[in-house]
Amino acid sequence: MPPPGDLRAALAAVSTRFPASLTGLHARAALALATLDPFHPIRIALLPFEADRRDTKRIMDSLILLEAPVPYRKLAANEREWHRVVCNRGLGKDSRVHGGPYLEETITNYMQTFTAPSTFLIKHNITLVESMRQPRTVDDLYETCHFHLFVSTALSSLALPLPETIVPALRVLDVDSVDAVQAANSAVQDSAVVISTKAAEALLPVEDAWAEKSKITDLAAVLSDRAMIMRRLVVSILETCEEYVCSSRAYIQSATTIIDPKDDKRDVAAARKAWAKEAHTELRDVLGTSLLSFERRVAWWKLYWVTDDIEQVVARETVLAGFLPRAERRLVYLVGQLNGLSAGGAKPLLPAEEVGTCIGRTRNSVRDELLPALHATAQRLITTTFIQMQLPLAAVAAAGWQWLDFTTYSAGGLALFGAVWGFRRVQRKWDAAVAEFVRETTERAAAAAAEGESEIFRAWEARVAEMRATLDAQAAVGAGLRKGLEEEL
Q1: How far apart, in whole angstroms, are the C-alpha atoms of residue 353 and residue 189?
Q2: Residue 20 belongs to some domain of the structure
């Protein structure tokens, strides 16, 4: 196997380019990356499938004796001691056996770990993990194993699908005798490796070729092919990556072309139209009603005692409270959903506080610009009318009645004329100012609704562009994996 180049870079990029939510993808990529080091052990999991734990035990007991420099039957009793210790392990815990110069044993609450002087394990740098259970979940890696061996003892088990797993898997059919091996091989047709550990146990004390006759060597040939195991692991990573990229591209394509009223995140066109319709309806029914209420509460004849309440009380209870509240909440939800939409592991484009703010900004402009101007108009109108028109005419009427022999009727008529003239001026100018305020507020609300509709569209366009760029980078990682498979494995 040539020195890893593009493959190492591609495996390292898997963890940064693809989301961690994919079933075991990061764990497999890290395992494959570590295994590019020739000193990293290959871990093989032995799993019972329609079989007993004792069946997987016999396979491990046979494998650790392979390729010994001296046939087993010629070993002295003390030289067989390490094998006896390993064979006497309990069946109530998972077991792990790896090669080493001498025997060591460690037992924890859930695992028995043995270091054994097994020539086969040392030569091929293999660790065997014997499990007492089948995978609990799809991404159950059994301590990041490279390969799952599902052990069964009946031909009928071949008709059953293997448990779903993200790790490359192989069936092992363990039959009763050598003759049964030959009969089973014609039936399985390369769908499983057929061995006979019972025949191996019987031949071990008397036959040097026990491994060949029991076909344990066929299984050993698979397990010792480091390049094949590594290749199958990388293929599983590549398949997950390509499937994810393909499904994400299909998702984006369908999201931009298919109308599905049940899913606002995908049917952006329909969601945008529905929001715009609701916003303009709310502008007409809710904001329109609020503006009418505002006009009634600040009618010209009430102006003299409500002037100071226009900005802080009346407008807050009418105009500001009815300024498209439901449309704003819906916009924040919809744009927030698009902003956080994830295909290809894309990250949110905007901070949460910047999502769907156009209506809020417009309402604040009405509060900070239009209302202070209207309040100032009311104060100025009342002050100038009283000082410049009503008060002077009332003073002239009083002076004429006192010193110029004005009759009471004449003086009262002059004062009343000044008051009516002032009230008429207040009515005319205040009604015009309120009408201008209502028109400007309505126009700003309509512009905010149009901007919200554009914001939905822009959010989706930006999200699609960002997701496509992310998917292009992920596709490049997949291309690197494929190139590494072809050139390095």
Answers
A1: 62
A2: no
pLDDT at 406: 66
d(CA 97, CA 95): 7
In tens, the pLDDT along 112-138 reads 999 999 999 999 999 999 887 766 665
**206 & 346 share domain:** no
pTM of the model: 0.65
- Helix or strand run (H / E) with residue 471: helix 408-488
Name which residue leads in pLDDT, 82 or 260.
82
Q: Are residues 357 and 455 in the same domain?
A: yes
What is the band of 393 on the pLDDT scale with cuts at 50, 70, 90?
A: low
DSSP string, 314-381: IHHHTTTTTSSHHHHHHHHHHHHHHHH--SSSPPPSS-GGGSS-HHHHHHHHIIIIIHHHHHHHHHHH
Q: Looking at residue 141, which CATH number applies to its domain?
A: 3.40.50
- Residue 460 included in any domain: yes
Q: Which residues contact 381 (CB under 8 A, 6 or more apart)?
A: 303, 425, 426, 429, 430, 433
For residue 163, which amino acid is it? Answer: P
172 in any annotated domain: yes
Residue 350 has pLDDT above 50, yes or no: no
| 282 in the same domain as 146 | no
Can you give the residue range of the structural domain that contains 359? Answer: 260-488
First-residue to last-residue Cα distance in the chain: 6
Q: Are 56 and 195 in contact (CB under 8 A)?
A: no
Q: Within a domain: residue 4?
A: no
Helices 358-365, 325-340: inter-axial angle, 10-degree rounding: 140
Residues 271 and 396 in one domain: yes
